[in-house]
Amino acid sequence: MAANQVTVATPGPAGATGLVYEGVWVVDSVYQVRDLVRYTDGNLYICNTQHTATSGNTPVLSSSIWTLFINADDAFQWATKVKHTQITDSLSNTGYSALHQAAKASDWASLTTDAVTNDANASDVDYSAKAWAVGGTEVTTTASRGAAKEWATSTGAAVDTSEFSAKAYAIGGTGITTSSGKGAAKEWATTTGGYVDTAEYSAKEYAIGTTVAVGSAKDWAVLAEDSVVTGSSYSALHHAAKAAASATAAASSASTGGGSATASAASATAAAASETAANASADAVSVLYDAFNDTYLGAMADSASQGTNPTPTGTWAKNSSTITVSAGTNIKVGQVVTGTGMPTSPKPNVLSIAGTTVVLSDNMDAAGSGVTLTFTGYGIYGDFNGGKDGPALNNDGDALADGMLYFNTTDDVVKVYDATTSTWKQIQPTSTEQGHINTVSGIAANVTTVAGISGNVTTVAGISANTTTVAGISGNVTTVAGISSDVTAVAADATDIGAVAAKATEIGRLGTAAAVADMALLGTTACVADMAILGTSDIVADLAILGTTDVVADLAILATSDVVTDLNTLGTADVVTDLNTLGTADVVSDMNTLGTGGNVTNMNTLAGIAANITTVAGISANVTTVAGVSANVTTVAASIADVNRYAAEYQIDNFSPSAPTTDGSGASLSDGDLAYDTTANRLKVYEGSAFVSIGLTLAETQLEANNSAVAMAIALG
């Protein structure tokens, strides 16, 4: 019985509404309505009817008197059921244990040897965060997959068997460098002396190289006189030199007057041929410039806009690339010029603008005067297209093609056009992204450390609710830790407690007041000595005679004061002689029986534990009770942490003049601590700053208690 209950033969009135934990169920105890007990099956039961406990109305036998409150097996299953094993508890709820959830969380965080399966382990779901981050089985070098690290840095092969990493596309790698239809951004920009993708050359090679078959821009412009650029074609410098030489020869012939008309005509013809060749060279340079300008478009910002397309008039001479416009307002480098007399293939672009003088990328086939022209910005000179993330057309206003490049000045990166998705794709990290990469590189040791304890991190994340619960009852945890030696001591004495319980009958006999008193007398030195004398065979024989009913009756008479006086007389020598008669064989035989080694040992043992026998005598009722509930004692020893926790979390108080300020163990109050207000007859819960009343139906109380038991089992292991 609890301290607030009275043990009487007849049950008293029902207790006030609230739960009163009575500990282990004990036969003959009087239980009130809403008393809570722990039975031998480990479960908690709540009393529905006031009664006196008997072996016939135990919690498992009498459902009308007792109702299951907390199913301990449910709590154990929800906490510890092995991974991938479904639970169906006593309330028909189904699911998986906290242990399973923790293990699955660990899989989702760090498993790299296989896919993460569903709860039933029947099918694959996806791969872990670590596998997607740094690689793992069925992610690394797997079609349509590949880890983030591999997509960022791998240069040894395709990431997903068909595509390559950002680093490979940026600076080169196996399957990219000198590979048909590919090539890295760095190679397309700087490679000289050979192809980038087995068929085409880099921007640098087209600009200043010596390997490109059709000649570089530099060769077409300034290759030395009489040096072939390609086939039978020469540079602009060559043709200019030849034209100058022809003009000089013609002038010399005219000034001397000695030259023939035929010579002059020949010189004029040669000069005209040189002019034609020079124009051809200029056209070739224009074609190369246009091809390069439409492969690497240049630089553009996200906010770029072409602005107004000006329409001035223009005047120019035949074979000239310089035109004079009526107004230079809004004319910009890179704009395409269209109008009557303008070349159409390639389309001329503005190379420079100075006032009203505009230099184009191509010569005019015929002179023009006052011609209306339109200057239009395309490609990087036009509007930024958000959908494509770059220019919508090339710099001539034609459709974009795979492999075209431009530099995005907003993101500070080079981008390549992908015709399949119709978008520009970034081929190098942004400065911000590179900063992040550098930051991670700088804390690589920390990243490695976290990766090494990823299982612990995942476990804690998966049981965050339990961690919060444990934090909320830290006082109770501290209390249990403070009595750990007591818990250990009880556990260590389990064998002794069992042995005592097995001797319940014997202890019951020895525990009576009369037996204890007798043993106290027998344990004195004098009594032990007397019993040693009485143990001789002669005296045993005599005592056998004295033990008969008639003799006992006679001895009762002999015990009177008068008879005692008479017996003193018997102690004289004569009488002693008579008593020797008691030493006959029969009497001696009887006394010898008392003097055997076993009997003497037993009597000596009793004499040596006289103090213990006295102590047991003083608690004989308790010994008898303990003997009757030995199984319960074992249960309590195994569940002492739960008993202490309950004692800390629940208390009874009259809330007068104020509410309790500590929990049942004397520690600080925590959220969820319970107290029964005997003044208001209400169960109250502590919510962090004050106790507030709660009221639940029996079914709701049972459900809440089940949930609490699950959390408790997880927190306490």
General description of the model:
By secondary structure, the protein is an alpha+beta fold. Among the domains are: 1-70, Seminal Fluid Protein  PDC-109 (Domain B), CATH 2.10.10.20; 217-253 and 260-292; 302-419, no CATH class. It has 31 helices and 29 strands. A five-stranded antiparallel beta sheet has the order 17-18-15-14-19, with no helix packed on it. Strand 9 and strand 10 form a beta hairpin. Helix 21 packs across helix 25 (585-594). The protein is rod-shaped and about 190 Å long. The model is unreliable at 1-10 (pLDDT under 50).
SSE topology sketch:
Elements: E1 20-24, E2 30-31, E3 35-38, E4 44-47, E5 51-52, E6 66-70, H1 72-80, E7 87-88, E8 94-95, H2 98-110, E9 116-117, E10 124-126, H3 129-134, H4 148-153, H5 166-171, H6 185-190, H7 203-208, H8 217-222, E11 228-230, E12 233-234, H9 236-256, H10 261-293, E13 296-300, E14 313-316, E15 322-325, E16 336-338, E17 350-354, E18 357-360, E19 368-372, E20 374-376, E21 384-385, E22 390-391, E23 405-408, E24 413-418, E25 423-426, H11 431-442, H12 444-452, H13 454-462, H14 464-472, H15 474-482, H16 484-492, H17 494-502, H18 504-510, H19 513-522, H20 525-534, H21 537-546, H22 549-558, H23 561-570, H24 573-579, H25 585-594, H26 597-608, H27 610-618, H28 620-628, H29 630-638, H30 640-649, E26 650-653, E27 674-677, E28 682-686, E29 691-693, H31 698-716
Parallel strand pairs: 1-3, 13-23, 26-27
Antiparallel strand pairs: 2-5, 3-4, 4-6, 7-8, 9-10, 11-12, 14-15, 14-19, 15-18, 16-20, 17-18, 21-22, 23-24, 24-25, 27-28, 28-29
Helix pairs in contact: 1-31, 2-13, 9-10, 14-31, 15-30, 17-29, 18-28, 19-27, 20-26, 21-25
